[in-house]
Amino acid sequence: MSLLIKNGRIITATDDYVADIFIEGETIRAIGRNLHIKADREMDVAGKLVFPGGIDPHVHLEMPFMGTFSSDSYETGTRAALFGGTTMVIDFILQKQGKPLRSALDEWKRRSTDNCVGDYSFHMAVTDFNDTTKFEIRDLIEKEGITSFKTFMAYKGALMIDDRQMIGLMEEVKKHGGLINVHATNGDMIDYLVEKHRSEGKLTPLYHYLSQPEVTEAEASERFADMANYTGCPGYIVHLTCEGALNAVRNATKRNQKVFVETCIQYLILDASLYEKNFEGAKWVMSPPLREKKDQETLWAGINQGLVQVVATDHCPFKWEQKLLGKDDFARIPNGHPAIENRMELLYSEGVHKGKITLNKYVEVACTNAAKIFGMFPRKGTIAVGSDADIVIFDPDEKHAISAKTHHMNVDYSGYEGWEVTGKVKTVLLRGQVAIENNKCLVKKGYGQFIKRKKVGAII
Ligand code: URP
Ligand code: ZN
Ligand code: ZN
Which of 4, 6, 285, 370 is deepest in the core (most CB within 10 A)? Predict the structure, then answer.
């Protein structure tokens, strides 16, 4: 099967030009003006933007968490991602404390294999680093192509590791060419504040926010950056939300160390006033919580300064009945919100359309940098000869509104209900197949492939 996409305005992290793209099988074979190549199908996309497929390196699909499972399966989550222009996601495997990494990998493979519509990979969350786990790191990187290891500095008793384990893990991961991802918040401080608020009978979602003040994130981000500097291990801070934490990274990078930063679309455009809506605020109970308007400005500036390299989602949806588990106690509200389908359009509308970031920066933070940092570039994350034909055809002018009535995520509300967006994903190709067209998904579950990743750090 071959396809000729004609007259598109191709945007990569560095270029902006009008050309044709010739695709054969799964791969881009030629790019040029007025290509005269016979193809099985031609698509004229004059007036449209042509982006590389989006990459969301922070999603939680069908994940056991806080006594329930996130509500998108591998099928529904990766399909919704495709509708929103995201052709590849990286999901998280969670080691069970006291059990090997391998058994968690087997469990996650059971749930995901043959069930994905879009392409995917895994980060391995190490929740119990010990002498047995240590010897599993190398195989994961070299045999499984899982090159990034997630750590939690919070969620004590379930996911958190201490600094001793962190240092040990960093040394091992560095030795084999991997990278450490971190949820950087001070778990002990947060647990103290949660208990204090509960003992005072302060139980609404607002107290979720007040139990995780900015200092809890700034402190942990600085500590993480210092440990990464000491061990020389590349680090990646997930879902960074605030000025204090970004300043810690700013300082760290003066030492010329590799600490990459991801923020998420919600932290750029939503703020903590949503927690004042009584229990409705549960829709936005996530960790870290939404912050202040001043933090949004810092994050947009951080993107433009190159301090923030990736805009992800931390997609971790729970249906309303699941959120109700915490109706009498904010600490029992499953943490997370749905956004896998909305990220590319919201970032375009709020970022590019409103003049906060350029088109090239958009592609960089939504597609290219994740591919570079996590070892998929140039197969993924760009439009180039030899790359996978993962392509988004985007109408920059079409206006529409986000709604749970029309989204494809398996969740019965939207954190962005009624939000007016300028710019729409029209057609999506995944490895040369037309995956989304005319608001329909044309590929089936099982089409999505597990992508083995290269060792980290060489490219960026
Ligand atoms: O609230 C969140 N972020 N839920 C998912 C787990 C995590 O911490 O990333
Ligand atoms: Zn987290
Ligand atoms: Zn997460």
Answer: 370
Q: How far is the CA of 238 from the centre of ligand 1 (A)?
A: 10
Ligand 1 binding pocket includes 323 (Cβ within 6 Å)? no
Residues 340, 87 contacting (CB under 8 angstroms): no
Within a domain: 420: no
Condensed to tens digits (0 to 9), the pLDDT of residues 130-162 reads 999 999 999 999 999 999 999 999 999 999 999
pLDDT of residue 457: 61
Who contacts 112 (Cβ-Cβ below 8 Å, separation ≥6)? 61, 62, 74, 91, 120, 450
Residues 261, 289 contacting (CB under 8 angstroms) = no
> Tokens 């990220």 sit at which residue?
343
| CATH code assigned at 199 | 3.20.20.140
Per-residue confidence band for 37, with pLDDT thresholds at 50, 70 and 90: very high
Q: Is residue 244 part of a domain?
A: yes
Whether residue 88 contacts residue 119, with contact meaning beta carbons closer than 8 Å, is answered with: yes
**Which residue out of 160, 335, 337, 411 has the highest number of ligand 1 atoms within 8 Å of its CB and is therefore the one to mutate?**
335
Domain extent, residue 206, equals 53-373
Distances (CA, A) of 158 to 64, 126, 367: 11, 11, 32
Does the pLDDT of residue 263 top 90, yes or no? yes
- Looking at residue 456, its pLDDT comes to 76
Tokens 């929103």 sit on residue: 84
CA–CA separation, 172 and 184 (whole Å): 20
Is-contact 362 314, C-beta < 8 A? Answer: no
218 lines ligand 1 (CB under 6 A): no
Domain count, the chain: 1
Q: Whose CA is nearest to atom 4 of ligand 1?
A: 336
Other Cβ atoms less than 10 A from the Cβ of 46: the count is 9
Residue at 295 is within a domain: yes
Q: Phi/psi at 413 (nearest 5 deg)? A: -150, 170
pLDDT at 197: 98
Q: Is the CB of 299 under 6 A from ligand 1?
A: no
Give a yes or no: residue 427 inside a domain.
no
Residue nearest atom 5 in ligand 1 by C-alpha distance: 336
The answer to whether the pTM exceeds 0.85 is: yes
CA 57–ligand 3 middle distance (angstroms): 10
